[in-house]
Each structure stands twice: as structure tokens, then as C-alpha cells.
Amino acid sequence: MKKFEKVLGFIAIIIVLAAAKFWLKTDLLFFRLLAGAGLGYALARAYTGFAGSVNRAYRTGSTKLMRTMLFMFFITAVLMTAFLFGKDPASYNLWIKPINIGLMLGGFLFGFGMSISVCCASGVLTDLPQALPRAFTTLIFFMIGVFVGFPIQYTADWVQESWFSSYIGYRTMGGVFLPDLFQGDGFEGYLGALIVFGAICLLFTFLSYYYEKRQKKSGKYSGLEIERIQENLEPMDLKNFKLFSPDTYYHLFEKPWTLKQGAIALAVIVTVMMGVTGYGWGVSQAYGIWFGKILMLFGISAEAIGEFTQLSAQNFATPFFEHQTSVQNFGILIGAIIYLLTAGKFMEFFNSELHINKKQVAMYSLGGLTMGFGTRLAQGCNVGALFTPISNFSLSGWVFLIFMIIGGIISNKFSEKVF
């Protein structure tokens, strides 16, 4: 069975590479598919996800993933500087999000739902082949939450207007662009911004180490098995290297990546995406558009849906494989499947979480709904309101992170009482 899975994995790779010629209309759509597949592959192979940063810390005491995320944020911001330095930052579609009550409430709701469903906006896609009932239930209600939240996102002043703004922030999405605050540093503000950025990362890292130390001291620390495996991976034996051997295949296709390897891969892909498309990484808005497409199957017009959501009807009328974010999201799912197949783990993971009870269905529905609705208040998810804004030097991303963590902690306490 594992050999058959591996063959299917390479067939899937060939199909993805053939997509440009036979299915996708433009080179940019093909790039979106490849970028999405790369993101999904990296997330799956490094056994990582934004939801785990809170859940692992609360449930096992391990803050390794949280620290890795901070490392990823910093190196992505450094890489982004290469695109922005010497240019008008506003010429890029930087996500310098507003700082307001919507951002805070949205971050809290997203963190709350993320921890209940044990996945996030991108994680729900990588979890579909690994935990289908949980991920599918979450995704359906995530779509509903985004769809219902659209009108508020585009009409409410407390979501649209920022309490604080800066020059480039005002010219983009209205928030605070950190380099604006350090224009006298001789490096267009980026040196000062990166120093502050690094200081914030170090502060969060110190707090995570402190928390983990206290958990170990109190006996509450259990750690995570996959993290122990990742920390003790054996390097490839280059002295006895044979190209066509089980050991070589294992190291090239099966062996898990460390958390840092996954973080570096994600940082590079996201930076390349910015360079090619001029946009950051976004996920969640497409879910609301997908729900609108489902409504269209029942006879509701794109115009009526557009009027309700305050989005152009064209967003809902555009075919799935001509919508850039949808193609990219589909790529994330395919990338995760490719890793599981080529590693010979697809059926093992697929069968691991096939059964859920009614209480779990209700909880995952709540998780998806609160996540989806929260993304509209914060104008993004853990990618669109956290990772991309932070890598774009937006202060809003750090505000979102704080409230996402608070929401995740309260959610875990709530889940303990329910279960």
C-alpha cells in the first residue's frame, strides 16, 4: 500500500506541473498553484501550523513552535526589506492593517475558534486529508462565518478606521508602518524597525522560555512526540550515499522537516510571492466567496450575493480555477496530500481521525464560525492579519497576535470544561 501511495504522490506532482498547459489560463494562476502547493507541503512536512503555537503551549507546555514562528516572522521581514528598500512601499499592496476594536475582537475570536478546531485558516486545508470530519466541519462553518462577516468588514467604521496611522500606513490600509517611525536611521527606517522587531521577538521568546520552564517545574510539561522526533533526526550518511536506495528516498521524501526548516521554507515562499504578485499571503476571504458560490447553486444570483456582502458580484461569478486565492488555497491542500502520499503516510493519517461524536461536531462548528467571523473583523486570519502584516512591518500584526493568544487560552479553558 505504501509503494502505491508513493507512486500516486509522484503522479500528483506531474498533474500539478501539467496544470499550466491544460487547465489554468494564465502563468500567474500557475504560479499561485505552485506557491500554494509549496506552502501546503512545508506545513505538512514540518508538522507545523499557527494553531499549534497556542495549543501546544497550553496543552503540553512546549513553546518550541511559538518560538519558531517568531523566528519565521523576523527572517521574513528581513527578506521583505530587499523588495521594499529604495522603493515606494505604497507601490506594493502592503497589508498595513488598521488598529481598532475590530482587530482586537477579531483576533480574540479567531484565537478562540482556532484552538477549539485545532486548526487555522491554512491548517484546515492541510488537515482535510489527515482529519477529514474535523477539518470539513470546521471549513463549512468557517465559510459561513466569513460570508456573514463580509457586510460588517466593509461598512463598519470600527473595523475600517484605525486609531493610529503613519505616512505609508495611511497610503495603504490605514495602520502603522513601523519604518515610518524611524526615518532618521539612515536606512529608510528599516534598520530601526528591524531592531524594534527583533526586540519584540526576543521579548516573546523570553516569555515563552519562562512559561515553559514554569510548566516543567510544576510537572505539567509533557512535550510533544513529533517535536522530540524532529529534535533527534539523523542526518543523511553522505559517506555511504547511494542515489537509488531506501535511505536516500527516506531523507528526500519521507523524513520530517524540523520546525526551523519549515519556517525557512514558508518565509522564502511568502517572500517570492510578494515579489511575483505584489501581494502578501492571504487565505480566508476565499472561503466566504466559496460559500457564495454554494448559494449560487441554489439559484441566488451573484448580484444579490454581491449586494449583501458589499463585494463585487464578479468575485462570485469568476470560475474557481480563475480566482487566484482559490487556486492558491487548492494548492495548499494538494501540497499536503503530495507530502503524505510520497511519504507513504496518507492512509495512516487519513484513518486516524475518521470518527467524531455529536459534541465534537458542535464544537468544531463553533470553532469554524468564530474563526471565520473573526477574520472579517480583523480583516484577515492568522496569515492575513498576523503573518503577512508582521512581515510587511505592520504594527497591527503584533496586536492581533496578543489577542489571538488570549482567545486561544480562554478557548482551551472552555474546551476543558465541555469535554
UniProtKB/TrEMBL annotation:
Alphabetically ordered keywords of this record: Cell inner membrane, Cell membrane, Membrane, Transmembrane, Transmembrane helix, Transport
Transmembrane segments: 7-24, 30-48, 69-86, 98-124, 136-156, 190-211, 263-281, 327-347, 395-414
Record localization: Cell inner membrane
Mode of membrane association: Multi-pass membrane protein
InterPro entries: Sulf_transp_TsuA/YedE (IPR007272)
Pfam families, per the entry: Sulf_transp (PF04143)
Tagged with keyword Lipoprotein: no
Protein's UniProt name: Uncharacterized protein
Lineage top rank: taxon: Bacteria
Record-stated family: Belongs to the TsuA/YedE (TC 9.B.102) family.
Record keyword Cell inner membrane present: yes
Coiled-coil residue spans: none
Organism lineage: Bacteria, Bacillati, Bacillota, Clostridia, Halanaerobiales
GO cellular component: plasma membrane
